[in-house]
Design goal:
The chain is of the alpha+beta class. It has one domain. 19% of the residues lie in helices and 37% in strands. The chain has a 5-stranded antiparallel beta sheet with strand order 1-3-2-4-5, with helices on one face. Strand 4 and strand 5 form a beta hairpin. The model has no long low-confidence stretch (mean pLDDT 92).
């Protein structure tokens, strides 16, 4: 799913993480520098021009900065 704002992407990822179909599955938030969009996906594969913002698992957000 593609969004224009980080806030909207976080809301969408959190909603997906509460869904029973995605229980215990990380929902990643990825920012694309080229298109200036945020993507919400279960695939954490990112390209050189993309940056991982963080992910949700069961409604709990983990920032990528926290993992450094």
């Amino acid at each position: 799913m593609k969004t224009k704002s980080k806030t909207e992407a976080k809301k969408l990822a959190k909603a997906y993480s509460y869904n029973n179909d995605y229980r215990d599955v990380p929902i990643y938030i990825i920012y694309c520098n080229r298109s200036e969009n945020y993507y919400v996906d279960t695939n954490s594969l990112i390209r050189l021009w993309e940056r991982l913002i963080g992910y949700y698992i069961n409604g709990i957000f983990t920032s990528e900065k926290d993992n450094l």
